[in-house]
Amino acid sequence: MMEEVKETASVLSVHDDSIKVTEVLKDGDTLTFIIVSQKLSGTGEYHVDRTYEDFEWLQQHLFSQGDVPGIQGVIFPPLPAKPQVNASPRSIKQLGFLALGECQPYCKALETFLQQVAAHSILSKNKAVEVFLTSSDPPGRQKVKKNIFNRLSQAVEEMRKEGHKDVDEFFQNERDHNLVLTGCTKTAAEKFLDVVATEQKIAVACGHFSTALHLCVEPGEDPDKQAFSRVCVKLSEVFESIKKNMTSVAENNVNTLGLGLDLESRYQEAEREMLFRRTCKLVELENAQRNVEKAKPVKKAAMEEVKKAAETEFEHTSGVAKQEVKSTINNCIPHFHVSFHSGLVC
């Protein structure tokens, strides 16, 4: 069991865009995902099986890279919430589109997470990524520890920092933009989920009505009954066609715009947390500067060192953060061909 992974620079031995989550196996309440990736050498494929706890293991190693300069400026690819074998209304609300369509949308979301991690210039160097994608042995099972990356923006004692004025106009504008976009994207995803749910209900209702019409067919030689039966059969065929079309429409909408909105919504949250982490570093730097100004001569040198360290960390974080923000648009939605279909075809 590989519970400990040395955090050293690593070059992945797989093509990031070849990573696929091809299948999910159910064993009681446990879901196991089959992950396939092409070897960089071109000599074959890696096939590994991973549980959700393994994904959490990987995410924990990505979060725990405090010695990597600027790591707090990274927008970490968002890992979907844990899936449920028997989805409850609460889990469906939490997972949204990922709870629909058996497990295909959820597998696609995990696949996108892995591809984005493997394609990231900083995160892909973590040895844990190589181990996760290529080792036949499962990563170690350990309890996920809380750290600075576990949804900092929800820490009550830090909430006041979210409204702290930024010294950099670029980041202040991005924070304002992110605040608006996070709300809009979440609302759009919720509304579109309602649309898809309605399409699925229409498909089910049409299927039931098609079956009911078949029950109206009566045997016998009576011309009126024969005519009525023919009408029922034709109508049944029409509603069966509507059912198949609406099922296809709903499935297409989940796999295109639905998954796109879900990913965008989770990515906006991830960016929000990154911007908050950077704001915390800004506050730390400003506090260090004030401490230097107030320090007595005997402590001034020590305070200067603290300030210098805070300044260096803030500059590294801001440098990485600016690159991340500029590349977010290109890295987020391209995995899905976004389209929306609605209507009936008989």
From TrEMBL:
Domain PX: 1-140
Origin superkingdom: Eukaryota
Extent of the signal sequence: none
Gene Ontology MF term list: phosphatidylinositol binding
PROSITE patterns: PX
Alphabetized UniProt keyword annotations: Protein transport, Transport
Keyword Protein transport assigned: yes
A single GO BP: protein transport
InterPro entries per UniProt: AH/BAR_dom_sf, PX_dom, PX_dom_sf, Vps5_C
Pfam families in alphabetical order: PX (PF00787), Vps5 (PF09325)
Family: Belongs to the sorting nexin family.
Protein name stated in the entry: PX domain-containing protein
